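Input record (one chain):
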Amino acid sequence: MSFDISRPHPWHGLAVGPDPPNRVNAYIEITPFDLVKYEIDKETGYLRVDRPQRTSSLPPTLYGFIPRTYCGPRVAEGMDGAKVGDGDPLDICVVSERPISRAEVILEARVIGGLPMLDGGEADDKIVAVLDNDEVWEHARDITDLPTTVVERLRHYFTTYKVLPDEASNVHLGPAYGRDHAARVIRAAMDDYEALRAEMTGAVS
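The corresponding structure, as predicted from the sequence alone:
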């Protein structure tokens, strides 16, 4: 039996997953029940209150990130119009048949696709996955296996969650992509993370 004596940092201390880029770990920051937007505090690894949700739109799925990934230059290269990556871990939305009402949990997710999101010129992909051992979604292998309504709800949330009335949106979402493209994005984010880690390690030494 192996274990950590101290709590590992969710971004740096957890594994990417059991079989990346097909099956990955997801650290959940926000649930569909949260009226407040939480984000990982990069220094401490705890959840930090970012802001109350600015609109009535709530995330339609579980929402978090894949550990040991980073949206840097390699992720940006894969998105038309992106100047840089957004500098955060790679986001992931996880569909689950049973409601999961608490955040700060780790789960295994099966990747089925994603949404290419450009936020102010920054690549901010949203990987879409299903809970790996959810029998209701066991047939889902590609984003086309989800009901169209689920994908539309995700698109609506990400195009509106930062926008207030009379404000212009700075977010653009392209057409949803399937599992193969999502795998390329995850690999690029893993490579970006390893480059960032090497850079940080070199700076410390």
